[in-house]
Amino acid sequence: MLKTADPILFDLIGKEEHRQETEIELIASENYASLDVLEAAWSILSNKYSEWYPGKRYYAGQEFIDQIEQLAIDRAKEIFGAEYVNVQPLSGSPANLAVYLAFLKPGDKVLGLSLDQGGHLSHGHPLNFSGLLYEIIPYTLDPETSLIDMDEVDRLATENKPKMIIAGFSAYSRDLDWKRFRQIADKVWAILMADISHIAGLIAGGVLENPVPYCDVVTTTTHKTLRWPRGAIIMSKAEYEKDIARAVFPWVQGWPHENLIAAKAVAFKEALQPEFKIYARQVVDNARVLASELMNHWFKISSNWTDNHLMLVDVFGSFWVTWKEAEKALEMVWLSTNKNMIPYDTRKALDPSGIRIWTPRATTRWMKEAEMKVIARIFSDAVRNKDDEVKLASLKQEVLEMCGRFPIYK
Ligand SMILES: Cc1ncc(COP(=O)(O)O)c(C=O)c1O
Questions:
Q1: Domain 37-271 in CATH 3.40.718.10
Q2: Is the pLDDT of residue 410 over 80?
Q3: How far apart are CA 101 and CA 185, in angstroms?
Q4: Domain boundaries, the chain
Q5: 195 given a catalytic annotation
Q6: CATH 3.90.550.10 correct for 274-405
Q7: CA distance 162 to 190
Q8: What residues are in contact with ligand 1 under a 6 Å CB criterion?
Q9: 51 an active-site residue?
Q10: Which among 35, 182, 263, 340 is most buried, taking Cβ atoms within 10 Å?
């Protein structure tokens, strides 16, 4: 219908669909939601106002909406084993804001991983609400190993007695020591919050350890490794239900997007299927092959390994190629990537040394180890031959051919 009603927009959506089909997306955070998830997301549920929670809404006509939201809550509980789940957060940053508001007062101290070492804006950056409203004590990585320095976390916590400690990241490729985070939080009576936005799918798929039993509160976006619609959820111990529910609504949000909550329910069901475990395992296997192959091509990878789905490639430190030159060359061969600081980067945040790449999106197309080897070789050839248009054109043909063999939506 859109084709006739709004041909300009229809054409643009079609072009974007073609771009997604013909490029290999290595941008960390992006994934493909299934057609079932997309169908629920654009359903008539978006016509309904349903402020507050199942069984206690401000508007009438909630018989089915309540059941849908409850279904999403029950499925999330089944996946993560949380006592309380709030499925209303519209996105990751509002979910984190709700947690800060539920547990803290402005000016309280919070310990979080520094953004330039792999943390997220909402873990305490001065340009974000978190850094504006709270006193942030950033912790860092060991300069030798590029691993989180847990002794430093312990020392900073003991010295500063923060009200909350955040464990989580946007650009870190190694496991987190949930048990040690818990011990440190207990020692100083701090709330332990995990932001598992990046690794939630790997936890749901049983590849990484679930932090829910160790933490007071856990947030996650639903659109990264989980392949769900854009949004987020908050999980916590039962005793925090009232505080979190009130912080989400009415403090941070109004009307929950029930169409997206329904899409979350569909995707939670997908994550409960045995096939999702295979997917999660493949994501990590692919990342390990991609990282080792890139190192074989003489690229420096932060911490020399990945335990999860992503890696930071130091393109400047490896070949004196800036991220901008690398991104442009990779774009010309239809590999999408994004710039990122590497730990202790000597360059600036907007002009860093690194590129962050991940495997979940290519793995959703069921690309496997063999394809990762080809991607590593194309990545390397493109960066090293960034000014050779003929070479780049032939690499692009290889990418196109590979995408043709792995369609997104069959
Ligand atoms: C760890 C982490 N937390 C929170 C967010 C924020 O999510 P959103 O972009 O949905 O607000 C992100 C997004 O990239 C993230 O990586």
A1: no
A2: no
A3: 19
A4: 37-271, 274-405
A5: yes
A6: no
A7: 6
A8: 29, 91-93, 96, 120, 122, 168, 170, 195, 197-198, 221
A9: yes
A10: 263
